[in-house]
Specification:
The complex is a heterodimer of chains A (448) and B (544). Chain A has helices at 2-13, 159-163, and strands spanning 53-58, 67-69, 72-79, 87-96, 102-111, 128-130, 133-137, 142-147, 153-158, 177-179, 182-189, 193-199, 205-209, 222-226, 229-235, 239-243, 250-255, 268-270, 273-278, 282-288, 295-301, 324-326, 329-333, 339-343, 349-353, 366-371, 374-379, 383-390, 393-401, 425-427, 430-434, 438-443. Chain A is mainly β and 448 residues long. In chain A, the strands form eight sheets. Chain A has a four-stranded antiparallel beta sheet, with no helix packed on it. Chain A has a four-stranded antiparallel beta sheet with strand order 2-3-4-5, with no helix packed on it. Chain A has a four-stranded antiparallel beta sheet with strand order 6-7-8-9. Chain B is an alpha/beta fold. Chain B is 35% helix and 13% strand. Chain B has 18 helices and 16 strands. In chain B, the strands form four sheets. Chain B has a seven-stranded mixed beta sheet with strand order 5-4-2-1-14-15-16. In chain B, a hairpin with a 5-residue loop joins strand 6 and strand 7 (190-192). In chain B, helix 1 crosses helix 5 (158-166), helix 2 runs parallel beside helix 4 (127-138) and helix 3 runs parallel beside helix 5. Chain B starts with a helix and ends in a 10-residue tail after the last strand. The chains are: A mainly beta (448), B alpha/beta (544). Chains A and B meet through loops of A and helix 14, helix 15 and strand 12 of B.
Chain lengths: 448, 544
């Protein structure tokens, strides 16, 4: 019964997205950015020999996850022609979903000067597919609308050149969000162009909103329905802002400063609750008004910039990982890799464990995708885990290794000297993962 | 004079200890075994309580019981032997309500006898703390070294230093004054000094460690420019607002006081005050955290900066900076032109670096690194030279690098490379840089914190903060916001006892060959009243 109700809810939420194969993964965290996998017939226990590999295709480095739509896998990467220089060539690729053959590529030159170079290895944003167009974003703010068939440039924007964007230290990360005729983007432009909406067919500006006196941050915008109103949630390092997605009009804002501007996790919506978490800013649970577009803080959890940090554990300090809300509980990985369960309405810590990552270590990350009453979890050690999360604890059902971690990491941990910080795609009973060398498609089907 | 007469006999006794002590500064203990190094800065033992038993507002050390617990816990951690370095401003000898040091010239400070009298007053006010220190110094193979700061530079008077040593009441050789004005471990790899000689113009002595002037056959302590011009203002503020000196960094409290009282009556102090605050040491304390130095820092168009004149200095301050009204006043009075005319190219570069830092700190909410109020509007950068323009070149650490690099080059002398440099003075603790292995290249790069030598793992530089209750402007603002207080109400209301019960210090574990990275630690009390060593404070300002 619980699982059936879950699927009904998912279908309702996803009702407004474009016509897609039910099992595609067309954008960041899948359809609706929900982090939900709706397919059936997936494995319950991984084979001892590992998941069957459908194909491996060499690519260059980068963090962007894959998008899968209509038989194609889209991904971005970058290469440095001169390893001693900051100039790079970024690239978008379309790959045949069945064979791994590269169908087309589109390259552009840019310069990573000004980024924190340890992590300046490639694009961050996951491509967004909408019908016959795929939107890709480079780390320095090069936005392209490409024809999915051949990679032809339909239109393009350069955030820095066109909107005076000062690219933040870890690059532009906001994956474009399609809403009706609009392409909503985290631009960080000036004046007052932190968020912008473009005509998704032409690239013409439709609206702009929010001051860029403060950095844009790294969180992905989402659209929710609350208080009888569709709301664009733009969580940036100064505020949690709710906008009218059609006009950019501000519905409400809750001040929530995230030190260092580091907020890579995506805001999580469930019913009347909206949750954000970051390393320095800590946690904020908002209660959304049920009659109008409005919100208030339900509870706060300390962040690393609060003096109580390290002494008060009724909080979640995710660095990259987007948490999940399941029933009356929040589950997420904090900045030290500890999986933690909090009460939804109070923030009280229920339990925590190091079992998922295997150790408490800086900036550890896991990507959660809900599948019925269980979760597929990708750890940054390159593992894929099937687990159940409940207030009673973490129950690991199966674990396998799917990708070699190659992303730079500047602290040591038991699992090695590198990490995998790319969100996987789940589509057509397969998982698509990438590192800095290859993109790999592996079968999750119960019956091969 | 009353105090001077009373200490004469004790001073003679102490001289013997002092001579021995001076000769052994920097030496390792007799058994040659590894020793732990613990550094406490800025205790600020002052005059204690008035005749009615109330704390003098300018008394910063109100924590004798906490201190005794701390030293007991510290001693229990290591029985082999500890070098406890009291790293400057242990005693507040630059001010006194009873012993004036007024002389014909403003740069003439206390004579030796006057300084001795001031010290005696302080020692009488803090017998408990001195007893605790004595107990620690007698324990095991421990040793205590007093490094002078600008507030207790008078320790460099032989009799004053001897009296301070004698106050510990321990056998000769256990306590000493670092007559070199700094302390260096016997192997030369650890350097500890207070920090006032690093960069701050106002507190710097020209002839350190001999901060003296001869006049009429008498030796006087030299009065620093800051003590001449700013100390009266600081004293006036602190007499009204007890926590002014507890806001870290050391100049942040001045900004609050200016905001609380307005700029009326500042007059001629405006320019030196602005200069001090514009070039305050902590401006160079921002950490480098962007990369390992692959990208060159920007070059500023100094000709354009000079062409802007005094407006350039005003534009350096964000609209909501508490210092801005004073700068505006000085600009209107034509005084900023005077200040502008005195600034060298290096000064202008430092200001431009700072503007870039403020801009980035504001845009990124970098209060962890900068302790700047992160909520206000950003400032503009200085104009860059065409060759250094580009997207998001937001580098600003060069001034800070230069400060430490130059200083450590001077200090190195003929000895081995300095591996660890610990200072204080600003009251704002700052973590050491971290060194981690970059995966791709496999080399060691500094990617967290900063290094005065680009790409080098050493020397490690660490600001130990102050062993007193301090509060950052961010936490103070947060408290004011929660209580709905203005700056004036805040300063008139909050007492040092309300500040987090938390005291920072630096520890370097005993090492056989090379010093391990130093640790910034805290002696803190938790919500349940338990005391412990910790890696942070974990407390906020509390309501009275």
């Amino acid at each position: 019964m619980k699982r059936a109700a879950f699927w009904v809810g998912v279908l309702c939420v996803c009702g407004s997205v474009q016509l897609l194969h039910a099992t595609d993964w067309p954008e960041w965290r899948g359809v609706g950015r929900l982090g939900v996998l709706t397919e059936t017939g997936l494995v319950d226990v991984f084979p001892e020999t590992g998941l069957p590999v459908a194909w491996r295709t060499p690519i260059h480095s980068g963090y962007s996850g894959a998008a899968v739509a209509d038989g194609r896998v889209f991904i971005t990467d970058a290469r440095r022609p001169d390893s001693r220089a900051t100039g790079v060539v970024e690239r978008a690729l379309a790959i045949d979903e069945q064979t791994g053959t590269v169908l087309w590529t589109h390259e552009w030159e840019t310069d990573y000067a000004g980024l924190q170079l340890v992590y300046a290895i490639g694009p961050r944003a996951t491509p967004t597919v909408d019908g016959d167009r795929v939107y890709v974003l480079g780390a320095m703010g090069n936005l392209f609308a490409l024809d999915v068939a051949d990679g032809r440039v339909l239109w393009q924007r350069d955030y820095a050149a066109d909107f005076n964007t000062a690219v933040p230290s870890w690059g532009m990360s906001g994956a474009p969000l399609v809403d009706g005729n609009r392409l909503i983007c985290l631009v960080g432009g000036e004046p007052d162009a932190k968020m912008m909406a473009f005509d998704k067919h032409t690239g013409e500006e439709i609206w702009r909103a929010l001051s860029s006196d403060w950095e844009p941050g790294y969180s992905q915008p989402i659209i929710i329905e609350a208080g009888g109103t569709r709301q664009l949630i733009a969580w940036h390092p100064r505020d949690i802002s709710s906008l009218n997605p059609e006009t950019g009009e501000i519905y409400w804002e809750v001040r929530h400063i995230v030190d260092m501007g580091i907020n890579p996790a995506t805001a999580v919506h469930s019913g009347r609750h909206l949750f954000v978490t970051s390393q320095y800013g800590g946690a904020r649970m908002l209660l959304l008004d049920q009659d109008s577009p409005d919100a208030r803080v339900l509870w706060e959890g300390v962040g690393e910039s609060d003096p109580e940090y390290g002494f008060d554990f009724n909080t979640l300090n995710s660095v990259i990982s987007t948490p999940v809300i399941d029933g009356n509980y929040v589950y997420g990985v904090d900045g030290h890799g500890v999986l933690r369960c909090l009460e939804l309405t109070t923030g009280r810590r229920v339990w925590e464990t190091e079992d998922l990552i295997g150790e408490s270590t800086n900036w550890a990350t896991a990507f959660f995708v809900r599948h019925g009453d269980r979760y597929f979890i990708n750890t940054d050690t390159g593992d894929l885990v099937i687990a159940e999360l409940s207030p009673e604890g973490y129950t690991e059902l199966s674990r396998t290794h799917v990708i070699e971690p190659t992303h730079p990491y500047v602290r040591r941990r038991r699992s090695g000297v590198a990490v995998n910080w790319s969100h996987p795609a789940y589509a057509n009973r397969h998982i698509v993962v990438r590192n800095d060398k290859e993109v790999v498609r592996l079968s999750l089907a119960m019956e091969p | 004079m009353r105090w001077g007469r009373s200490v004469a006999g004790l001073g003679r006794i102490g001289v013997v200890c002092l001579v021995v002590a001076v000769g052994s500064v920097g030496a390792q203990p007799g058994d040659g075994g590894p020793r732990r190094i613990v550094v406490l800065s800025d205790l600020h033992l002052g005059e204690g309580r008035d005749v009615d038993g109330a704390w003098f507002p300018h008394e910063d050390f109100r924590w004798a019981e906490d201190f005794d617990r701390f030293l007991t816990a510290l001693a229990a951690e290591d029985s082999r032997g500890t070098d406890l370095i009291l790293n400057g401003d242990t005693f507040e000898l630059a001010r006194s309500s009873e012993v004036a040091c007024d002389h014909a010239r403003p740069d003439l400070g206390c004579t030796e006898s006057e300084a001795l009298a001031r010290l005696e007053r302080v020692l009488q006010a803090h017998t408990s703390a001195m007893a605790s220190l004595g107990t620690f110094a007698r324990g095991g193979d421990n040793r205590v070294v007093m490094v002078p700061g600008e507030e207790d530079a008078a320790l460099l008077f032989p009799e004053v230093g001897a009296r301070a040593v004698a106050a510990f009441g321990v056998p000769a050789g256990r306590v000493m004054v670092a007559m070199a004005g700094l302390w260096r471990s016997a192997d030369g790899r650890v350097l500890v000094e207070h920090g006032h000689q690093l960069v701050s113009r106002a507190d710097r002595f020209d002839s350190w460690p001999l901060p003296f002037l001869e006049q009429g056959g008498q030796r006087h302590l030299r009065t620093t420019p800051g003590q001449q011009t700013l100390q009266p203002l600081v004293d006036a503020y602190e007499s009204r607002f007890a926590i002014v000196d507890n806001v870290a960094d050391e100049t942040a409290g001045l900004r609050f006081a200016l905001s609380a009282t307005g700029t009326d009556g500042i007059g001629d102090v405006a320019v030196p005050l602005l200069r001090e605050l514009l070039f305050r040491f902590s401006w160079q304390q921002f950490r480098m955290d962007l990369d390992r130095g692959d990208v060159e820092a920007p070059e500023w168009q100094l000709d354009e900066v000079r062409a802007d004149g005094a407006e350039f200095l005003l534009a350096t301050l964000p609209d909501d900076d508490r210092l801005r009204p004073l700068a505006t006043l000085a600009l209107d009075a034509g005084r900023l032109n005077v200040l502008m005319a005195t600034l060298s190219d290096d000064d202008l570069r430092a200001v431009c670096d700072h503007r870039a830092a403020v801009r980035r700190a504001r845009r990124r909410f970098e209060r962890i690194l900068s302790q700047l109020d992160p909520t206000g509007p950003p400032v503009t950068e200085c104009a860059r030279t065409p060759t250094s323009t580009g997207p998001a070149f937001e580098y600003f650490w060069q001034s800070r690098d230069q400060v430490f690099l130059r200083h450590l080059e001077q200090r190195r002398g003929q000895g081995p490379p300095i591996a660890v440099f610990v200072h204080g003075h600003t009251h704002l603790a700052d973590y050491r840089q971290g060194n981690f292995t970059r995966v791709e290249a496999g080399g060691t790069y500094v990617v967290d914190g900063f290094s005065p030598v680009r790409d080098a793992a050493t020397p490690v530089v660490l600001n130990g903060g102050a062993w007193q209750r301090t509060v950052t402007p961010v936490l103070l603002d947060r408290f004011a916001g929660e209580q709905g207080m203005s700056d004036r109400e805040l300063l008139e209301t909050v007492q040092p006892e309300q500040l987090p019960p938390c005291y920072s210090f630096v520890e370097i574990e005993a090492y056989p060959d090379l010093p391990a990275p130093p640790s910034l630690r805290y002696w803190r009390q938790d919500q349940d009243g338990e005391w412990m060593m910790a890696g942070g404070c974990g407390r906020r300002v509390t309501s009275p």
